[in-house]
Amino acid sequence: MRAREATEADAGLLLGWRNDPRTRQASRSAAVVALDEHLAWLHGVLADPDRLLLVVEHEDVPVGTVRFDREDGDAWEVSITLAPASRGRGLSGAVLAEGERVARERLGVRVVLAAVHQDNAASAALFERAGYAEAAPAVGGFRQLRKTLG
């Protein structure tokens, strides 16, 4: 696995993954995102020093994306999306680990938070296997998990 910072050239790829029905089901917003809205969002993310958007590749093929957004203090919220074609291949743990490695090295990230939809058992299992633990009561249907990076 190798993570690289996303660029505007990744817009179509990322939008396709974002608008996939299974991705939308697990997201805070289940709405389909229009291209112009996505381009504005991507431009803002790429320009924001408090956000890191990575595309993770396996054998030079993009298989997922990991995003880190600075929260209060030294905590960063993580979001992960696997490419639809990459699901069921056992890649999610490696994608998350590579994202955490890059965030730690490039930004000094030490505390990571994850909001996991209560109905998303696969995502909950991913984060729990990766060492995340309950940090707070669920809010709005999302479990609140936390991990301190080594």
Strands, helices and their partners?
Elements: E1 2-5, H1 11-18, H2 21-26, H3 35-47, E2 51-58, E3 61-70, E4 75-82, H4 92-107, E5 111-117, H5 121-129, E6 133-139, E7 142-148
Parallel strand pairs: 4-5
Antiparallel strand pairs: 1-2, 2-3, 3-4, 5-7, 6-7
Overall description:
With 150 residues, the protein is α+β, with helices and mostly antiparallel strands. The protein has one domain: 3-Layer(aba) Sandwich (Aminopeptidase). It has five helices and seven strands, in the order E-H-H-H-E-E-E-H-E-H-E-E. It is globular. The mean pLDDT is 92.
Compact overview of the structure:
This protein is of the alpha+beta class and 150 residues long.
Overall shape: it is globular
SS class: alpha+beta
The helix/strand order is EHHHEEEHEHEE
Give the CATH level 1 class.
Answer: Alpha Beta
Mean pLDDT: 92
- Number of DSSP-assigned strands: 7
Looking at the structure, the CATH topology is: Aminopeptidase
- Terminal CA distance reads 19 Å
Number of helices: 5
Total domain modules: 1
* Computed CA radius of gyration, to the nearest angstrom: 14 Å
